[in-house]
Amino acid sequence: MKLSPLSLFAVMTIGLLSFAHINLHAAQETPAKQVSQKVVEAKSDVTSKVNINKADLAELQSLNGIGEAKAKSIIEYRNKNGKFKDVKQLMEVSGIGEKLLAQNAGRLVI
What we know:
Helix content: 55-70%
CATH architecture of the largest domain: Orthogonal Bundle
CATH class of the largest domain: Mainly Alpha
GO biological process, one term: protein secretion by the type II secretion system
Pfam families: HHH_3
Radius of gyration: 27 Å
InterPro entries: Competence_ComEA_HhH (IPR004509), Endo/Exo/Phosphatase_dom_1 (IPR051675), Hlx-hairpin-Hlx_DNA-bd_motif (IPR003583), RuvA_2-like (IPR010994)
Distance between the termini: 81 Å
GO molecular function, one term: DNA binding
Domain Helix-hairpin-helix DNA-binding motif class: 58-77, 88-107
Strand order of the largest sheet: 1-2
Number of domains: 2
Order of helices and strands: HEHHHE
Number of strands: 2
């Protein structure tokens, strides 16, 4: 069977496009799976309880309105003054007030 140069070119082009489509599909699938896994992990962080007497920097930062600076302030306060006796005692930490406690109601535990 003899193929003309044009037929050979057409067959090779179709083959290359098919190969490129398969690789493109595989490349796009992996990041989507990774993103969905991170979303699931983030959702579990949002509903998990945080023991303010034991939480590390990352756990404290999972709370609404708590960034790195406030998380460090909570840990410094805890190290200096001992364990929190009540969740409301968090308001003694600079930058933490009733609004922040309300945003995290149900997640903060002793």
